[in-house]
Amino acid sequence: MADPSSYRPKPGDIPDCPGVYRFRDEHRRVIYVGKAKSLRQRLANYFQDLANLHPRTRTMVTTAASVEWTVVSTEVEALQLEYSWIKEYDPRFNVKYRDDKSYPYLAVTMNEEFPRVQVMRGHKKKGVRYFGPYAHAWAIRDTVDLLLRVFPVRTCSAGVFKNAARTGRPCLLGYIGKCSAPCVGRVSAEEHRELAEEFSDFMAGRTGTYLRRLEREMTAAAEEMEYERAARLRDDIGALKKAMEKNAVVLADATDADLVAVAEDELEAAVQIFHVRGGRVRGQRGWVTDKVEDVTTGALVEHALQQLYGEESGDAVPKEVLVPALPDPVEPVQQWLTGRRGANVSLRVPQRGDKKALMETVQRNALQALALHRTRRASDLTTRSRALEEIAEALGLDSAPLRIECYDISHLQGDDVVASMVVFEDGLQRKSEYRRFQIRGRAGDTRLWHGEGQDDVRSMHEVITRRFRRYLAEKERTGEWADGEDALADGSPGALTEDDGRPKRFAYPPQLVVVDGGWPQVAAAQRALDELGIDDIAVCGLAKRLEEVWLPGEDDPVVLPRSSEGLYLLQRVRDEAHRFAITYQRTRRAKRFRAGPLDDVPGLGEARKQALIKHFGSVKRLRSATIDQIREVPGIGRKTAETIAAALARAAPAAPAVNTATGEIMEDMEEAPLETATSDAGEPVTAGVPDDRRGQET
Questions:
Q1: What three-state secondary structure class fits 66?
Q2: Which of 149, 308, 461, 684 is placed for a possible disulfide with 590 were both Cys, Cβ 3.0 to 4.6 Å?
Q3: Is the peptide bond before 133 cis (omega within 30 degrees of 0)?
């Protein structure tokens, strides 16, 4: 735990103007980003007596090891920069509303030649009109099914559309009148786009004009005694009114507004948002966050608005935003929203009337969401905390291991040896920080040579050494994170730092290293750390057979009770590392190129093997080629060509196959193309490999 006074800047060094500040921990990771109208006054609040600070603020300043700031011209610029840095650094002590991006939207792909209506999730794309979000995808599909009768817009995928165009026959929707069938030319691209625009206008709330037009057309058709057309228009009007009934009018005067409500306690806060367009509720979404800092309701509202409109612009920002409390100060936020929309935005607290009543409804939804979240998560938080405490107690750690890294080795009978690293923080997976390694073995070979000095234990030693050597080398450089290299997912070198000097997450050390295996693997991992001089990282191993926990230097394992939450967490970590390693190993095995005698040529990689086979067509023709002919292949020099020729000369060609029925010599098998087949179980199996070479995955 750091002493804030050790990195406190002198008050005279801090500018008294607007800006954005960042707190970093000892590993240079950004843990908090904030903005201030006066940097000097705001930062002074963090360096007062720890007893006067909020518990979460106290935790943040004692975790931090340095603070830095950037001066800006206005508070609006500070707001924009704060949002950008929060998105970039993902600080652990900032309020982050966990939006799982799973809300379904109704989307109209106006960026295509023939726009398509579909349900979309995730990030929004340019040129696509979105309506929603909705609570359930089935609600969107019901609405679309009603509207397709009036607006027969294409809903099929690109593959179905192209197939219909090729065969000249539309899909079922085209036959029943719920698609205008542009794929077969029933309507032109311009006519279909006009239908899509009318569909979008109706969904945007401009319904009255269209309904009145249909009613006039129905009346005119009846007067002209075109009763079938009048009946069709009557049914269309009924379908549109039924679709409109799904969204009741909640605000008069066709108001466009977003209503934001917050329900909070000392630990968490829930946000509910109603999107009202044309006086009707068009969408709803909600977020929940842990309050890892001491913030007011106005500050929670400000963070919610940042996340809601940070990547939106134009029509996505309404004329009016109603909130339970205003940010302090409110002017920069209002100016920022106006800039996002391109027109004035009213940010206020409703005081009376329909808007006040609707805000109370949104508030009730927020309270219910917070209560439901607490019910679901209470046991989960308690369980994870208990699991980490049990692990710390069993392993004799000073504190709970908030970051755990687990390593596993995987191979198939010694071939394609790989390793995995998975990361758990606070008992939860951090998949963005997973890493994969290719075991280099000897002379760059990726096979295990049992009995010749290379095995799982040595592979574990190599992986741990490679992972922590890069971290340690950079840490020991002048105390700063300079440019360097690190082992990436494929084991290749890569820059340790980003362009702005920020260290990659792979550079952060864990409190606990878990290896998949027993005493030998644990000893190898500990030996690797000892050789690097690292003594502040605990190591343990989890053996599969009896689920025993092995510690370095101990003759007997630690046996945790079967009902232990700590053992369950270690099992989850180990199983995730095993799954990740097996997946990578299978991927490499499926892509591996088998070239017979060429596999035994030292220093010849997969790319050059493929280039040789592609150039000569088969191993037989390659064997008969001269050294000069082999040198014609790109990337092959004289020395390599001589090595290839010598290796092929040493390898005796397979005896010709004989048909036992006719006595005829069959075609040389080396002329057959090299290929990879797939087993019945779906696992890739190299064609032509004898059964006795197919081993079990480890």
A1: strand
A2: 684
A3: yes
User: Token match 């390593």: residue?
Assistant: 407
Give yes or no for a contact between 189 and 227, defined as CB atoms under 8 angstroms apart: no
State phi, psi for 440 to the nearest 5 degrees: -80, -30
Task: Tokens for 69, please give them.
Answer: 């700031």
166 has pLDDT over 50: yes
Rg (the chain; Cα; Å): 33
Structure tokens at 662: 């006719």
Contacts made by residues 264-269, CB under 8 angstroms, sequence distance 24+: 264/291, 264/297, 264/300, 264/370, 265/370, 266/291, 267/291, 268/370, 268/373, 268/374, 269/95, 269/300, 269/370
* pLDDT per residue as tens digits for the range 412-455: 766 778 899 999 988 888 888 898 888 876 434 444 444 433 47
Please tell me which residue, 555 or 665, carries the higher pLDDT value: 555
Instruction: Name 532's Cβ contacts closer than 8 Å, sequence gap at least 6.
Output: 465, 468, 469, 472
The pLDDT, as a whole number, for residue 513 is: 94
Picking from 562, 448, 457, 451, the residue whose alpha carbon sits closest to that of residue 519 is 457
Residue with tokens 């088998």: 594
Q: Is it the case that residue 396 has pLDDT exceeding 60? A: yes
Question: Residue range 125-151: average pLDDT?
Answer: 74
Q: What is the largest CA-CA distance in the chain?
A: 101
Per DSSP, helices labelled H in 2-51 are 39-46
d(CA 24, CA 11): 19
Model pLDDT, residue 251: 66
Other CB atoms closer than 10 Å to residue 405's CB: what's the count? 28
Residue with tokens 């069993």: 394
**272 close to 366: Cβ distance less than 8 angstroms:** yes
pLDDT tens digits along 564-592:
888 888 988 998 999 999 988 888 776 66
- Tell me how crowded residue 286 is: count the other CB atoms within 10 A of its CB: 22
Q: Which pLDDT score, from 0 to 100, does residue 592 have? A: 60
| Cα dihedral: 87, 90, 91, 96 (round 10) | 80
Where are the alpha helices (H) located in 148-188, listed in sequence order? 158-167, 172-175
Measured between alpha carbons, how far is 43 from 313 in angstroms, rounded to an integer? Answer: 32
Distance CA 237, CA 158 (A): 31
Task: Output the CA torsion 534→535→538→539 (10° steps).
Answer: 60
Instruction: Extract the runs of DSSP E, i.e. beta strands, from 337-484.
Output: 346-348, 403-412, 415-425, 428-429, 435-438
Confidence band (pLDDT; 50, 70, 90) for 376?
low
